[in-house]
Amino acid sequence: MSALDQLRQPGNKRLAVRVKSAAERKIRQGHPWVFDGSIESISHEGAPGDLAVVFDRNRDFAAIGLYDPVSPIRIRILHAGSPRTVDADFWLDRLSAAIDLRQPIVDAGDTTGYRVINGEGDGFSGLVVDRYGDVLVAKVYSEVWFAHLSIILRQLVELSSASTVVVRLSRDIARDNRYGIADGEVVLGPAPQTPLVFTETGLKFGADVVHGQKTGHFLDQRDNRRLVGGLSVGARVLDLFCATGGFTVHAAAGGARSVVSVDQSGPTLAAVADNLALNADVEAVAAVQHRSIRGDAFAIMAGMATAGERFDIVVVDPPSFAHRNDQVEIALRSYRRLTTLALPLVNDGDWLVQASCSSRVGIDQFVEGVFESADRAGYELNDELITGHPLDHPAAVEENLYLKAVIAKVRRR
Q: What is d(CA 321, CA 338) in angstroms, rounded to the nearest whole number?
């Protein structure tokens, strides 16, 4: 018996909720969250995952969502507008729409690792599902989903023809462990091979779907990695905050002369070497000169500049610097500093690729910071391309727009 069968089902009695006018307006505008401070009245107390119906000022149906009695996000909206029953057909329709959206990735035939459900962007606030070959990895960020996981994951297996489902838990949920499912537990199908090998635009990568970060790999930079690969013929490439080496491998496969990978994690750099080895049958990867440096990227960049090292492409893809709103200014200063440190490392007329994965830092703030820092340091950025979310990472609202990148040629004034 699967651990999914032990999970509680949502209560039969729906909660009736009235919210403040401002919250009602946001719901009608498509916002997926109702915060605790926005609730004026509620019919009774519910458990995580119970269905809550929001009524408007005229006591007509406004929306239905999943209730969480302890989270600041008290209701995660599933549907707004005309009344809709949330049942097996509802989940089937929503899952089918998510799968259809990704069909171009499947049809391309060269990528088996991609996101199937992207939280709010697909109408599943607080739930993410990634696919690696025949394995689905569901990352649960909100307790509201445990009451619905059994039906959703089983339907998703049927729709996608996947063989295995692994459940990953956010840190807070894993710590409490109140639902009988452990982080990394296989809940459907056979245990996956670890690391699990998948393809990204024809290149092989390994993902530790049981113990690795997120769901095992950072899938969202796929398009930017492909762009870097296309720029890399004969190039010297510096990959900062390299994680498991996505940019490194794509640059090598694109014909880079050399790649230097920098990260502060030893196991991460070992994963870079493993991913390069997985692609050793690619002639360009086998020929590349690769070097790993473990340490603080800020200090390493400063040291490289002092030593006069130069590169044709410098990739700066740091982790999120702003996990809370009060960290935004610190994050912006960090991004500006990274720009200032990276520019002297780029050969005149060659490429800077700088990214941010913080949803609390807006795209305009980030791009403005990069260009202003370049100007102050005596550089111009030309032929710029500003990129955002790939197809399989749709965003529902501004708060979900976390990924942004500047790709530009660097000119010294």
A: 12
Spelled out in words, what is the top-level CATH class assigned to the domain 220-412? alpha beta
Helix (H) or strand (E) holding 249: helix 246-253
**Spatial distance between the Cα atoms of 11 and 230, rounded to a whole number of angstroms:** 53
**Distance separating alpha carbons of residues 66 and 363, to the nearest angstrom:** 30
First to last CA, the chain: 67
| pLDDT at residue 322, as a whole number | 66
**Going by DSSP bridges, is the β-strand pair 15-19/33-35 parallel, antiparallel, or unpaired?**
unpaired
CATH 3.30.750.80 correct for 88-193: yes
Residues in the chain where the model's pLDDT stays below 50: none
Bridge partner residues of 351 (DSSP): 313, 409
Model pLDDT, residue 406: 98
> Which strands form 127-132's sheet, in the order they lie side by side?
113-118, 127-132, 135-140, 164-169, 185-188
Calpha distance 412→353 (Å, rounded): 16
Q: Closest by alpha carbon to 279, among 231, 311, 245? A: 245
- The pair phi, psi for residue 143, each rounded to 5°, is -65, -15
CATH number of 3-80: 2.30.130.10
Residue 210: count of CB within 10 angstroms of its CB: 19
**CATH 3.30.750.80 segments of the chain:** 88-193
Contacts of 319 by beta carbon, 8 Å cutoff, 6+ apart: 241, 357
Please identify which residue in the block is written with the tokens 């520019």: 343
What pLDDT score was predicted for residue 399?
A: 83
DSSP 226: H
Extract the tokens encoding 369.
Answer: 């910071």
* CATH 2.30.130.10 segments of the chain: 3-80
Residues of 2-28 as b/e, b for ≥16 C-beta within 10 angstroms?
Answer: bbbeebeebeeebbebbbeeebbebbe
Residue with token string 């700088």 = 354
| pTM for the predicted model, two decimal places | 0.95
